[in-house]
Amino acid sequence: MSVEQAPVQRADFDQVMVPNYAPAAFIPVRGQGSRVWDQAGRELIDFAGGIAVNVLGHAHPALVGALTEQASKLWHVSNVFTNEPALRLAHKLIDATFAERVFFCNSGAEANEAAFKLARRVAFDRFGTEKYEIIAALNSFHGRTLFTVNVGGQSKYSDGFGPKITGITHVPYNDLAALKAAVSDKTCAVVLEPIQGEGGVLPAELAYLQGARELCDANDALLVFDEVQTGMGRSGHLFAYQHYGVTPDILTSAKSLGGGFPIAAMLTTEALAKHLVVGTHGTTYGGNPLACAVAEAVIDVINTPHVLVGVNAKHEQFKARLQQIGTQYGIFSEVRGLGLLIGCVLSDAFKGRAKDVFNAAEKENLMVLQAGPDVVRFAPSLVVEEADINEGLDRFERAVKTLTQA
Ligand SMILES: *Cc1c(COP(=O)(O)O)cnc(C)c1O
User: What Gene3D superfamilies does the record tag this protein with (predicted)?
Assistant: First the structure.
């Protein structure tokens, strides 16, 4: 029997929530595949995917099945005990990647926090107290905990929270000479997103990642790839490092890993993992059976040639149409990205107006994303249907037409 709920509206947000977000004017209440319905029954097409999270769309039967089956069995036992879904999921991630060991947690920030702590601990154990410097890229994003905002290369996220975490250097992305100049025997890790997501859907150049790998090897530093946004099939490979053929020492995954259920993972080798001995790190919820059961279903569906080949085909469909729209209306200077992480860079005439594009799309019943003020980002479900892509891009073209002819 369902209990009668008091009605709530968007206006309630400003009354009851901390004002750190500015959500859209409507409230989504239901989703199916790549369609979402709001409180008024309005149907929208979802090319935002919950910010690269809803990797199989909404209410995918395999995920609903895994969640409901596990929900009636066992939700949580803490890490005082292990559990079957966590062990199965770890096996699947290890079988599919370079990794030999897995640490589960609940968010991208936590996975990166674990990665940075592991890198510093390995350097401490192997080389002593002086090797703790982390080199990261300007404009990168690694999460919102104190450590991760400090490693992230956007000071607007780390200013005003007291003393900064020291031993972190930022260098321009895709600039191998700058990275080379920054790396030293004090460097414990170089941290990179294979594609800068929040920073504007900016893919790394292959030579940059290869060069970073060589610099790390030459300086006894670890290469950390933050694949929180690029992982779990989004690039057309299970992880973007597999697209580039450059293997990190530590990889972090979150967002799409749970397809909408919170879970994250840090993947690494056995030789590095052994430095996190009992008691050095932990989490209460991390790797709980409910989250792991869902993520297992996600990887089972995604890590198949059918889905991954489909991502590349859908990329071409998006890219061709977005380039046509960009040229026809003079709104984009470039369409970039891999797989189903696509960024449309606004032309000079529309610089700074990604939010206006977001709003115009919403008026046409389409959900898209920004990646900063100058890039419109698409991160749809990896199994979005061709008809939904065409209909969504029709809506997008109408939005662009209205905006550019206003
Ligand atoms: C979203 C994101 C994070 C942070 O993930 P949360 O789950 O929000 O903590 C970290 N790194 C990258 C590259 C991301 O895109």
Answer: Aspartate Aminotransferase, domain 1, Type I PLP-dependent aspartate aminotransferase-like (Major domain)
Instruction: Give the residue, by CA position, lying nearest to ligand 1 atom 5.
Output: 108
Task: Kindly report, residue by residue over 81-94, the tens digit of the pLDDT.
Answer: 999 999 999 999 99
**Number of domains into which the chain is organized:** 2
Residue 211: what are its φ and ψ, rounded to 5°? -65, -40
Domain final residue pick, 302, 324, 352: 302
Q: Write out the two tokens for 330.
A: 């003079």
Cβ atoms 146, 112 nearer than 8 A: no
Summarize pLDDT for 318-340 with one digit per residue, the tens.
999 999 999 999 999 999 999 99
Q: Are residues 349 and 281 in the same domain?
A: no
Calculate how far, in angstroms, residue 44's C-alpha sits from the geometric centre of ligand 1.
25
Give the domain range for residue 262: 74-302
Q: Do the strands 264-268 and 250-253 form a parallel or antiparallel pair, or are they unpaired?
A: antiparallel
Residue nearest to atom 10 of ligand 1 (CA): 142
Say yes or no: CB of residue 256 within 6 Å of ligand 1: no
CB of 227 within 6 A of ligand 1: the answer is no
- Regarding the beta carbon of 197 and ligand 1, being less than 6 Å apart is answered yes
CATH number, domain at 271? 3.40.640.10
Verify that 42 and 31 share a domain, yes or no: yes
Residue 6's pLDDT band (boundaries 50, 70, 90)?
confident
